[in-house]
Fold each of these.
Amino acid sequence: MIVLVLNLTLRQLLGQKRTLLLIGLGLVPILAAVIFRFGDSNISALEFTAEFLLNALIVNALLPLTALLLATAAIGSEVEDGTIVYLLSKPVERWRIVAGKLTAAWGATLVIVLASAAVGGVVALAGENDWRILGGFVIALAVGSLAYSSLFVLLSLLTSRALFAGLAYVFVWEFVITNFAPGVQRFSIREFTASIAEAIGNPSDLVFDADLGTTYSVIAIVVVTVATAGLAVWRLSRFQLQETV
Amino acid sequence: MSTEERRVPDTTVEVRDVSRWYGNVVAVNGISFSIGPGVTGLLGPNGAGKTTLLNMMAGFLKPSAGEVRTLGKASFQTPGIYEQVALVPEREAVYEFLTGYQFVLLSAQMHDLPDPETATRQALQMVEMEDAADRTTGGYSKGMKQRIKIAAALVHGPEVLLLDEPFNGMDPRQRLKMMSLLSHMAEEGRTILFSSHILEEVAGLSDNVLVVVAGRLAASGDYRAIRKLMTNRPHTFTIRSSNNRELAKTLLAQETIFSIELTDQKLLVRTKNLAAFALTAPLAAKEAGASLFEVRSEDESLESVFEYLVTS
């Protein structure tokens, strides 16, 4: 059943304009890497790759935006147009439906984000000896995209304005508030992802320095993923068709 | 599966003191009824609460008060009921990137049927959609979408089939075909409940109706029996006889006659007492020396019953 829902959702996502938009956005980091490679820059390739390409462009922007758009398309659009009834009117445990939807949203996010990070990283680091930072970010992006997808699938089941709620989380909470209130970083998937990337990539502090501890980040990202996925199952099992009278 | 092979309970859907409100708006107000195998029409004007009721029966809405049980189980939060229950929603949306065949096959596979391909082909055949099965549903007309939704709903042979305005968009031939299909399923002992605001559809498929007006159950049962119970409404008959004028005079002397209109060819007679009229009309004709050619009820139709219920 999970595979059926997964296949259905992937076909849904492939046919959407927002997927094409995201593929286009995924080219931006690659373009930036090409410009860096052939341009005249004062910073090192390692620093550019870690701080600007992978952290600023991909972890801060491409990752949450891709996960948000794909997760809301994976289930939110079905809730909105009512086609979710065709899945829910079957004798199938609701966790299987959530698992299929989440896997599809995560998988599609992974393809775009990892392709962008890998190609951009290879272009930017060409000729360098130390590739650990790229490996660290690739693993962190895989984990971070699952956490984001799980959160946004839940949001899609909680509100018909999941896209706005998700944008508020990404750009207001994670981008603005964490800069003014450092304690809030402890509740940010972006910060968990960056910390895991740093722990695995092990770059010099001069190249890239995350703000949270590794152990805390790993535990936090697992808790967020499991809790939001569990809440999504709970929510879907109590799903009610929206009606206006 | 034949009727003999299945054990069909007398009551398959039970609605007990059910209300549903959205904020301050009451959509369904204290409704109780039960239905069993056969076809039942859920009739009411737009906004009467039909879709809300159907969605509660299908487990897609939680009653604000009361209880809805389908095949003996609480409808809400019980995915297991969908082994025997199917819903055809009113909304037109389908997975537009799937072909008709893939859409029905998905349903069969999600029901974990042993041979989903064969079940899919049979369901497509039942709604006469084999020829269009390889086209994507996005290109279907409204009527075709309705038929493919019905095929997906009945692919697993449900005991209870709930349909929300199922004939929307169908042409007259498709409509008749669908009515015949639903009648046949009801004869097999299945419970078919369909909503409609179009009286001809309900009258053409079912004598048994649930009439919902403004969130309340205005009447339930055979609509002709309902009409007979509406004693505060005079029954209207058209009479054609060999001597309409004399017959009108004789009938007017009867206490049970409310009014008579005499036209060139016929009499329009209104009576408060149907049973008494049935006895006295032939006697009156005899007394007037008139031969009765035709005595026809003008308001035993579902349309009249519905109009009386909605306007009362």
Amino acid sequence: METTFDSLYEQYHDDLFQYVIYLVKNRQVAEDIVQETYIKVLKSYDGFRGDSSEKTWLFSIARHTAMDYFRKQQRQQGKLASFFNRTQEMERIKDKDQLPEEIALLKDEMKQIYQLLDQCTLDQKNVLILRYIQTLSIHETARILEWSESKVKTTQHRAIKKLQQLIELD
Amino acid sequence: MDRNEKEDQLIEQLKKMPQIKDDLSKEMLLKRININLNKQDQKQDRLWYKWFLPSVASIAMVFILIIVAQQNLFQGDDQIMERTTSDRDMSLRSDSNNDEVQMFLADEEESGSATADEADNYQNENDGDDLNILDSARMALPTEEDQLVYYDHDSFVDADGVETFTVTVVDVNANFVIPLTLISSSSTGDPNDYYSRINSFLSDEAIEELGISLYPFQDMSFEFGFDGNVVYLTVPDDYQFSEGTFAEGLLDEVLSIMFADYDVDTVILQTESGQQGIEMSHSGLVTEIELLDQLANSAYKIYQASSERLLVPITRSSDEGSTFNTIDEAFAEMQVDQSDSYLTASIPAEVVDITVEQTSNEQLTVKMGPYPDFGDNILTSEMIEAILMTAKSFGFQEVAFEIDGINGEVGRFNLNEAVPVPDGINAKLIAD
């Protein structure tokens, strides 16, 4: 198991962490999701059929793990919102996480883009991260998101338009 | 710059987004993965164990039912035979005074009367079954959501920036105080952050779910004094303690329990315009309240007036109203239901063989005789939680349990070792 982990880690870890942290914007949560992704991958590695590349398989599992996290968070927030009279503060919690050091050092314009990513839909955010920040191909992005390539192209087009609009409005 | 150029520029900026480094080392990550994989394996083993025993029990039950059903069938046949014999005997009796036959008939009658008694008993048992069905929810395996106590090391508490703080509410009849521990996930560590806006914590839905009377802090705010020994309670100038909004008589208890974790000894009452004191309907103008250790020597019971189950410290016996001088008295109270107050006994009243021994200054040992419903279920888990809190109120740090028929885990508790007393009760997560 350790050999498999070593190999995956050496080849993909930086990209994997990059994808997840841009998606969840919280270092602790990103670490947990990446850890959970490795656990799932290591447990099912023997059954990996190689239909897709190892990298897209790994990213696809990371995406599902992150989705589970978002769903869980949504359920919890729904529960909390009904339990506590804190709707306004629930909104504020989304922005409470500190900027990673690498982002904090950027120009304001870049920081703005980083923050406005959260106002895109999750699909749009996924595409923007995979296609532009991770510079993956349309084919690879489609495999990770389990979409058709044309859906990736459409979503990517809309995502850029949306982000541009948000920048202008901000 | 036209729109397309702007979008192209945006794409270029996205491509220049920096690599965010993972601070966690490869070795540490691998270590965590291994720990988690081991945990999952253990969980799988436990799941198998949990699945295996009920399955074996179910199969055994089916066999027992088949055997019982077969016996009933044979008994049915016997009864037909008996009836035939009886008819025959009737005819014999009519034309014979044979002693042997008389004796045989006497036996038959006794047997018949025993069968009728058994039928009555069965009917009574069946009546009891209806009640058992109502209680069956408490026989389920306890989950995290069933926990009434919490420990600081619990996963939802044990994280950076997490703080807990206590607020107190009052039951529907305004007879006793119920502490709630609110867990904040992004705390500044300053209690003023919470207590200054305490009136916003519970929504109407939450009050309904908890089954409590109106939240007592609707119009109040609290602020800690500089030295930390004093808290200022501020209310609007026109504030009135009136029946239906707050139980005035419980104010000292409410405040004492709420600030028990701090070094606060006095609460100073004032109005928003700075007037010292608050006019109470019964006590007149009250300027300050001295706080006391209200949770000492309590018996914990279960309160449920709505969907939520809550642990509640009871400080006086239900029959005489006296305080508990010994933990034995508290244990006796824990076996008393007070249905008119929505309080249920945390230790089943039927458990008679209970021994409570002080093993050391810190440790209490609780021994209990057998009880059919004890097991890895909510009933037993809640009982353990209530006992732990009761022990804590008497100054103990841990409790060793020797419960007949239980040797191992009940919910989150490993009873093979002494169990430390919890850090709080009735925990609710809040988002800050």
Amino acid sequence: MQAPAMQTNVDLDSPLLEVRGLSKSFGALKALQEVDFTLRAGEIHALLGENGAGKSTLIKVVTGVFARDAGVVRLAGGEIAPRSAKAALDAGIATVYQEVNLLPNLSVAQNLYLGRQPTCFGVVREAEMRRRAKALLNGFGLDIDVGAPLSSYSVAIQHVTAIARAVDLSARVLILDEPTASLDRHEVEILFKAMRQLAAAGIGIVFVSHFLDQVYEICDRITVLRNGRLIGERETASLPRLELIRMMLGRELAETTETRAPAHSGAMGEVCASFKGFGKQGYVAPFDLELRHGEVVGLAGLLGSGRTETARLIFGAERADSGEAEVDGQAVRLNSPRDAARLGFGYCPEERKTEGIVADLTVRENIVLALQARRGLHRPLSRREQDEIAMRFIRLLDIRPPDPERPIGLLSGGNQQKALLARWLATEPRLLLLDEPTRGIDVGAHAEIIRLVRDLCDQGLALLVISSELDEIVTYSNRVVVLRDRAHVEELKGEAVEVSSILAAIAADGATAAQGAVP
Amino acid sequence: MKRLSPIAITALVLVAGFALCALQFPNIASTRVVANLLTDNAFLGIVATGMTFVIISGGIDLSVGSVIGFTTVFVALAIERWGIPPYLAFAMVLGLCALFGAAMGSIIHIFDLPPFIVTLAGMFLARGVSFLLSTESIPISAPIYSTVSDFAIRLPGGGRLTAIAIAMLVVLVAGAWLLHLTRFGANVYALGGSRATTALMGIPVGSMTVRIYMLSSVLAGLAGIVFSFYTAAGYSLSAVGVELDTIAAVVIGGTLLTGGQGSVIGTFLGVLIQGMIQTYINFDGTLSSWWTKIATGVLLFAFIGLQQGLIALSRRSAAKTARAHA
């Protein structure tokens, strides 16, 4: 390897990349507020936080994808302000994303040297290029045919190729954004080996991952962000796992003063839907779950622990390959969202913008969408019926502005969320799955959504709610299922539903779990 | 091997087809017929070379037929009516074509528009301008035209390799060199793999796009000049629909319509196959020449089906190797 050799005697304690007081807003949303981050040469530094914590924003500002509002970024003492990913790369900051940003149709060698192939009178010297490519990859412990198309190799090898390209372009800072999400254990080893080598050669590595076991395995230091703010920077060795999770989820044990709604402790309704050994290989481990009318079940766990995956299985968006589902005592098929909708299930996905709302359609059209889909194209809802339904829910859920003909994309996040809820409520569902219903909406709307969840439950609906906000989940849940590493690990009910017990369940040592192994 | 297999199949189709034709009409297997085939399809081969670059880069250029038509009219008018020396007229028209291609490439890149729409507009524009210049067929009688059409290399067996056939072969070789052996060529493949990724890897995507469409338009202009030699006239209705023949030749030659894979040699074979079908129909004498279109259509279907099959196959084998490496 060439690049690492040039930095042999680096002062391992000097800051390589320094971020000071970085702020970035998108409209009213403050994605980053006065965040500091320090990366030293030769260290592997984990950047952790739940969805919306600001990790991606921080990376994108540092790599020039977004412009910052305030703050300073220094690389090896000199201030930098890259305006594009290319400018950041030229400055020495390379990023490797979860999706490999290379060209599958070109050979490995072409991918490594695209744009800087060795040439002789304008002709690419193919043999020389392959020899160099082979030598470069040998440095990472890979001995492969570099003339073969990139697509013929596994994702891990593609990742290492991307890293090799970045490092060969004399990167000093390497940012790895969820590189292990689609790798199995063996592939993770290949990647970690390469990372350790680079760190030993003085390159600073930022590692973003939601696999905590991997973080503890490879990282020297951890920085935690939450809601766009810096929570702290610690040495991995001196940071217990429980403490880390507390930093990420943001509740001190002593602070858990939230009390649960008394109405929920009482009698529960009939079983609405039950699942036995329901699961899908490599997606979510088989689980047992019972959902009752008039009951809220919360799904808690870290990002990537299998919460959304559980909801998607129940809604048929992914097909389960084991177990049985019963609704009202009858065995049912759940092979597609259509099946689920016919059974009276509703699902508000987490990615409101991409999976939920149809931004160009009006509020009315968005609200009647699911109902119309269930009735089929042959029995259209009359315009009068549509208006009636839209107005009823706009009043009921207090959607603002109360104008059914406004394109939904122009509404605030909270009101979009309410319109989505209205879409499913209009179908009069018996089971509603809500994935992060309060994500990205302001505090006032937040409280209203929570109130709505409770009201719906009191009306006899069965609810399954996913949330990263533990105190929120504790507020409305009768039971909480805790997930870790794509498996349901614990079910808390009654008095046990407390932030502290959820945290303990999440943090329980994952030694038995198949960490990161999603083949 | 994997990358060559679509070409191998194209070559096989060509050889088998030629053998069948020769069985029925032994006269087909002569240098005379083959040389004529090259001459008749010289303009197609030139324009298809440019189209190969465009399609591999993930685009399409529908304007080439109209650009050929425009070129013939412009050259004829310049030489016969405006009294411009032929070489200067050629240089002028190639310059205009380069500007035209650069404009389409810029619009595609800057406004992030689909090449289909932009070059469709270019197609109407070029055809419209050539009608504006003249609606009648203008014969060209400049001395250079008779000199060039008299020039030919005699082949054993009575064949004559004409100047325009030689021009096509030169363009093909130069195109193959540019596509397969230079950085520019590697970037063309990269663009076809993924535009966004190519940009992230530091390749100037904008200037590449502009240059690729420039190349295509200039080669279309060259094809137009060759076409004017072939017909010794300029006519605004010439080469109508040639863009589709060109795309067909490129696809039959094994280039993926979605971009990222293909070769100039394959395109040459694709041109030859189309020429061969036409030759067969000429020999038969009873068939309508529209059978060329029908045969081309059937071949296109077959090749697109074949490509999809190969893609599925290579994906499966890729997954297998991936597992083997894991």
